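Protocol step 4 of 6: structure prediction from sequence.
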Amino acid sequence: MIQESSVKYCLSCNRSENEIPLVTLTYSSKPAYICSHCLPMLIHHPEQLIGRLEGAEKIPPAEHND
């Protein structure tokens, strides 16, 4: 059996795992990948991922205790 390997891409900037480290996440039982550069966007401004991550509109941003 031949096992195919598929390159993973950041859901935000579309850079590949060959260009930048990617973090694997699961949301709504679906795998997704985000790069180390775009991870703060997921944490602080998830609304910017609407249209790129299904259900992003439901993710609340992190609370900040300034």
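Step 5 (inspection) to follow. The radius of gyration is 13 Å.
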